[in-house]
Amino acid sequence: MNRPIGIFDSGVGGLTVFREVVNHLPHEDLIYFGDTARLPYGSKSPEAIIRYSLECATFLLEQNIKLLIVACHTASAHALEILQEKLPIPVIGVIQPGFELLMQSTRSQRIAILGTESTIASGVYQNLIRQHYPMASIFAVPCPLFVPLAEERFFDHAAADLIAAHYLDPLKEANIDAALLACTHYPLLKRSIHKALGPSVKILESAFTCAEQAQAVLCLNHTLNPQEIKPAYRFYATDHPIRFSTLAKTFLGYEIHLTLIELEKNKKV
Length: 269
Ligand code: DGL
Hints:
This protein is α/β, with parallel strands linked by helices. It contains eleven helices and ten strands. The strands form two sheets. Strands 4-3-1-2-9-10 form a six-stranded parallel sheet, sandwiched between helices. Strands 6-5-7-8 form a four-stranded parallel sheet, with helices on both faces. The longest helix has 17 residues, at 46-62. Bound molecules: D-glutamic acid. Residues 9-11, 13, 39-42, 72-74, 116, 119, 147, 183-185 line the site of D-glutamic acid.
């Protein structure tokens, strides 16, 4: 019950999920892990992403977590099922929550998924949507340059507007009414994405729905933390501690204490 929840992402982007988990579960101790040494996951092979995800999960399991949240869409797309199979604790990802939110939000079922190359190539969102909504028109767009733009904090920058227009202008013809930001970094570029897609398109992110799901899992398993004292938050990354801390301040609005760690090579769950 009083064990922490573990959250991992390839980098700092998963702090959008961390923030929502704090809002939904204010009594829970949380451990955030960003695999910054190996970011971006989005351009790696499925095999590499699975291996990295298992190593991140192993580290968090060693911290005695009671629930694992895979905040990274790319890791969720490729490694969620394996993690659910191998880990002795509940594991949730961001795909199902994003899918549910998207399909609740669209009226026309003309929708876009914006994600990393690897997430889009996995077809995980497209398959899930087709399975439940065979009539939906899905426009899946990889936007690889959004991650470095977000990392460079080009949130309000003409370069971000140009690149968003480059990726998203073709969607204007598609007449979509909702777009899912299926990458943890993309919410940081929401302003440029909104500009490119126009005001009639709802722009959605799965962090809120993912935190709701985490809350539901803990309720169901009777593992909510009853503590009344201020919860403990721990942050770990595998590289770039200053960049991580600076970006974390942008995401969270406060300074964090970050511990740098090195994952042991070839360690398996
Ligand atoms: N965190 C990744 C995701 O949500 C994006 C960044 C990366 O490519 O590592 O898909």
